[in-house]
Specification:
Helices cover about 40% and strands about 15% of the residues. The protein is of the alpha/beta class. The protein has two domains: about 200 residues, Rossmann fold (3-Layer(aba) Sandwich), CATH 3.40.50; about 110 residues, 3-Layer(aba) Sandwich (Rossmann fold), CATH 3.40.50.1100.
Length: about 325
């Protein structure tokens, strides 16, 4: 079924699925489950670890000796990328958007611990240009860099979450809905593709972290279509095949508000489970609001796909706001 798909197996898989009975009771239903991709094992885990199994394998196959990627100062993706680089003997440079902290903490601290060379960019609009300049400079210096796309969201990265759907189905746990945070689209595209390839009967809903719904649906459908060719399937997805909700991202990327704060508190106090302030906190806030509005039926089962990110809780900008 698969064509030319190289993979390194270093994630801790399958990730467990757990009941959330006390949170279910606190919210008055539906039945809630969680898929623990925060436990994928690499550098505190997260969804990017699945993608890096394919991306690092591709980098190796191309003879690369260096990984280059980009993200925000507290990027979970970049933290996992540099950890993978350290594990498999690659140099790594990260282009991070935002002001360099005077006191490193959370993901930014871990990036340095894993050995990343860090280039900071003040304005996000300049990131792609600086990223390309960094890549070109490395190549000119005789390195063989491999560009890990933002969020790991390429056709190669998306493969990981198509296989993740297969993994979920083999765990033989029923879910009417899968809910998760979506941004750069790779996880979303993989889930949509996996749904079709492995015949998942439920619905897959991405809560947008920072992207307009129409743009997200278009990008995810195109990426899923392209990734399907790696399976020899050539499936054409349209934006109508993608479920997404943009109602919870209006405050902007990384802005910590009452919804995120409540979601983190509810998961922590009811289940002893930690979310992060940017992605899973916002996605869970959306899911909780939809539950309260009756979007899900009381007799349905909703699985929250936890994509990780907890180290960001310890970033100075979020830690002080969690309990206020």
């Amino acid at each position: 079924m698969t064509q030319n798909i190289a993979r390194l197996n270093f994630a801790h898989l399958p990730t467990p699925i757990e009941e959330l009975p006390r949170l279910t009771k606190a919210l008055g239903g539906p039945r809630l489950l969680v898929k623990r991709d925060d436990q994928t094992g690499l550098a505190f885990g997260g969804n990017k670890t699945r993608k890096l199994e394919f991306l690092v394998a591709e980098a190796r196959a191309q003879g690369a000796d260096m990984l280059i990627s980009a993200g925000a100062i507290q990027s979970n993706h970049c933290r996992q990328t540099v950890a993978a680089a350290a594990r498999f003997g690659f140099d790594c440079t990260l282009v991070l958007t935002g002001e360099r902290p005077t006191q490193p903490s959370a993901n930014f601290l871990l990036d340095q611990l894993f050995g990343a060379e860090i280039v900071t960019v003040a304005d996000r609009k300049d990131r792609d240009r600086v990223l390309q300049e960094t890549f070109d400079k490395a190549a000119a210096a005789g390195k063989k860099p491999y560009l890990v796309p933002y969020g790991g969201s390429s056709t190669t990265g998306a493969l990981a979450y198509a296989f993740a759907v297969e993994e979920f189905i083999k765990q033989n746990v029923h879910a009417d809905w899968i809910v998760f945070g979506t941004s750069s689209g790779g996880t979303h595209a993989g889930l949509v593709l996996g749904q079709r390839l492995f015949d998942f009967k439920g619905k897959i809903l991405g809560i947008s972290i920072d992207e307009p719904e129409a743009e997200l649906k278009k990008h995810v459908s195109e990426l899923a279509s392209q990734a399907s060719e790696r399976f020899g399937a050539r499936i054409h997805f349209t934006p109508e095949d993608v479920l997404a909700n943009e109602n919870y991202c209006q405050s902007g990327y990384g802005v910590f508000g009452d919804g995120e704060r409540e979601a983190i508190s509810l998961f922590a106090s009811n289940e002893g489970l930690l979310l992060d302030p940017v992605y899973t906190g916002r996605a869970a806030a959306g899911m909780i609001d939809l539950i309260r509005k009756g979007f899900f039926k009381k007799d349905e089962t909703v699985l929250f796909w936890h994509t990780g990110g907890q180290p960001a809780l310890f970033a100075d900008r979020y830690a002080g706001a969690l309990l206020t």
